[in-house]
Amino acid sequence: TLLSAPATHTRMAAVLKTMRLISEAGGVKQAACKLWQTGTIHHGKLVGEDELGNKYYENTEDKIFARNRYVVYKEWNCNASEISPEWHAWMHYMTDDKPNTSSPKKSWQIKNIPNLTGTKNNYVPYSTTKPKVEAWVPGRS
Fold first, then answer.
1. 131 — alpha (psi -120 to 50), left (phi > 0) or beta?
2. CB-based contact 72:80 (threshold 8 Å)
3. What is the pLDDT of residues 20-41, one digit of tens each?
4. How far apart, in whole angstroms, are the C-alpha atoms of residue 74 and residue 97?
C-alpha cells in the first residue's frame, strides 16, 4: 500500500527529531548511555550545576508539564537524594527561580547528605532502654 502524504510527513518529522536528539546528546554512544541511564533521551538548555557536579536542564520547546526539567547526575550510580535542596525546589516546580550557587550559604544550612540506605554507612537505630519482655530463644525452656 502507498503511504499517504501526512503519514509520511509525520514519520519524517519523528526521524528528524530523533536525529536531532542523538546529535544533541553527543552522538550515538552518548545517546545510548543516556537512554540506558534515564530511560529516555532529553534535550534542553543547561541552566545550572550544583556542588556535586550534577547538571540541570530545562526544555522550553516541549510543553509537557512536569517533563521539561531534568537532572543529569555526575555519577553513573545515581540517587535522587543527591539533588541539593535548592535544586530540589526548582526541579519540583516549587519555584521558577534557579538557585544562586554563588551566594554564600547561611550559617544554619548544612551540606546535603545523600540517602545511605542499603550501604555500609546506613543508619541503624538502637534501643537504650531495658526490654520489658524477655525474648524467646528456641531450645531453651
1. beta
2. no
3. 888 877 888 888 887 887 777 7
4. 22
Write the DSSP symbol of residue 39.
Answer: S
- Give the residues across from 48 on adjacent strands: 56
The set of cell numbers assigned to 74 is 555526575
Positions of the chain with pLDDT under 70 = 1-7, 63, 101-102, 141
Handedness of CA 29, 30, 32, 36 (dihedral sign): positive
| Contact between 46 and 55 (Cβ < 8 Å) | yes
State residue 110 phi and psi, 5-degree precision.
-110, 165
For residue 38, the 8-state DSSP code is H
C-alpha cell at 70: 531534568
Query: Is residue 58 within 8 Å of residue 68, measured between CB atoms?
Result: yes
- DSSP SS3 for 109: coil
Q: Looking at the whole model, is its pTM more than 0.70?
A: no
